Structures are given as structure tokens and as C-alpha cells.
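explain this chain.
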Amino acid sequence: MDPIGYSKEKAKKVLAKHGIDVLVASTPVNVFYTTGIPTLHVAPNPILYVLYNQFPTLSLVRNDGEESLIAWILYQSTSKFSWVKDVNGIASSKGAMENVSSKIEQWGLGTTTIGVESLMPRYQYEFLKNRFPKAKLVDADQAFLDMRITKSPEEINRIKASTRISETAISMMIESLKEGMTDNDLLQVAKRAIVDQGAEGWDHITLGIGASDPEAPGQGTVVKQGDICRFDVGTVHKGYVSDISRGAVLGSLPPGAKDTMDFMIRVQDFCVDNIKPGINAKEFNAKAKDFVKSQKKGSAYVTGHSIGLEVEEAHFFSPMKVLDIPFEENMVLDIEVWQPFKGAGLLGVEDCYVITKKGCDRISSLNKDIHVK
């Protein structure tokens, strides 16, 4: 099979840029990215994820882009999912690290620069450190991000499919919304819609009713007339995620809600109109802040984050972090705008976009206004 998003040529350039001779992927998401083997928690059978503590799956990327895969010896289907030909079976966590080390030695890279993830388990890091005392172990998180931040056509197609499923789940929650329902009822509607549409599962289902905490649904909060309900859904399609948010209300909108939403949609539209290949994210963030101030509608939380195998791979711009890098063609990002609103916590809008040669194209399609039932 062909790689989904991984590119040998891209890997060579990224490793050269960071001065890394061999890269070790240890987290499920980066192992999946570099090999295609189903290590994610939403795999049809997430057995490799479940057994990660005993039989870790790891991969290595050499500075010329060549790869090696270390996997549980009883898993017999690597050839059905992975493009990596060099596969080594292991029966313990120590055996996994022995295999990693042997491959590094075989490649003659034991005294060079080894890139590891900051989330690598401590025992794995200590094993490499002790085995290769003359090697330089460096944080390779940025190298992985540099490889993943622009998407292949197949990755973009998977994100588009995930977006369609997320929007279907939101539409079905809005359609079923009625007085007396609970957040538990709405969660069941969303989960059923996600599975029925063919997704492996949900990355997140953020669900708020009125002033309830949208990050902690499932407490039995009851829908009442006038409550603004917030539905923020990300589904997983063949490993790739989306991120969409919409609002709905029973009866009529509270005073000021439409003006607030109109303001946030204008801010989002400003972002879309001004994000293009070559535009620096840090410089754009400053312009977005100026635009928000010019509207004289109060402050707003404006965020653009990369999406792909994770819903927030990196924040291009946000109140928390801003990257000093240019936007590039085939980056996929979520643009979200939020503002505090009385009785609803935060009110906002959130959509997925792909950067093309011409600018920022919207992937999602739902009407952005608060839906009134």
C-alpha cells in the first residue's frame, strides 16, 4: 500500500533541517503517521493501543527517509496496513527497545543525533540514553509537526469525510432537540449518527446547554426554552479528524445573541479572506486583533489551529500561542471565534478550511447562524 500522508522526500528534508540522523516515533499518532499500522484508539480493533504498555509499537525514520517498524509479534496483519517492509516482531517492552537499538546500530547511527518525542515513555528514553552514551538525544516534536502540518490529497479527503460526518451528527442533534431532553439524550443521538455514517468514532463531543459546562456533558442537564445549546463535534474517519461547532435554541434567541453571532462571523470571514499561502501567521494574528478592535463589539477569542490526525496539532494563532511561520498550500486548519455571552458561557462559530493556491477554502457547509426551533 502507499503512504497516507508520510513522504520519504519530505522526511529527508525535515530531518536535514533539524540535524537529526534517526527519528524514533513512540506515540500512537506518530507511529500511525509514519507507518499506517492501526495504533490509534479508534482503530477497528484498538488492540495495539490497548497493549501499548506491554508491547509498544515504535517506528524509526532514517535520515534518508527509510523506515523500520517494531510491532507486537502476534499481530499478523502489518502487511495489510503498513507500507513499511522492514518489520520486527517483539514480545515485551524490553524487546521493543532492544529492536530499536539494534536497528540504530545496524544503520551505524549509534553516535549521531537521535530525535525522540517529548511524550516518549521515560523507560524508553532512559534505555536509548544508556545504550548510546555518545549519541545526542534531541526533542523531535517539531520535526514530526513539520512533516504532518501540510496534508496529502488523501489526508485532505479523509478530513473532508470526517467533516461531513460531524456536520451530520450536529444536524441530527439540532433536529431532535426538544424541551425536556438531557445532554445524555443528545450525546446518544450524536454517537449513533457518527457510527451510522461510517466513522470509527468520535474525537470529541463538546455539548453545552445554557450555562452548563460544554467540556463535561453527560450530567443530565435538561433542555429548556431559551437555552442556547452548543454542539461542537469532531469525528474520526480513517484516523483523521474534524472540528465543527454550531448553536441552536428552542423558542427565540436571547436579546443580543444575533448581534454577537454576526460579529463573530465577520471576524471569521476576515480570517478566511486574509489567510493565504506565504502570509505569516504571527503577522496575520496582529491584523486579526486590530480587526476585532475596529468592530467595537468587545473582545473575542480568535484561534486557528492545524487539524489532521489530532484536532489541535498546533495553534497557528490563538490567545495561547502564535507561530512565526508562513501559511502553506495544503495546510488544513480550524478557524474558531468565541465570545462570552450571558447564560451561555461562550458563544461562537467554528469551521474547517484547507489552504489552496488562491486562499482559504471552506470544507464545512452548515449555516453559521444559531438555529432557532
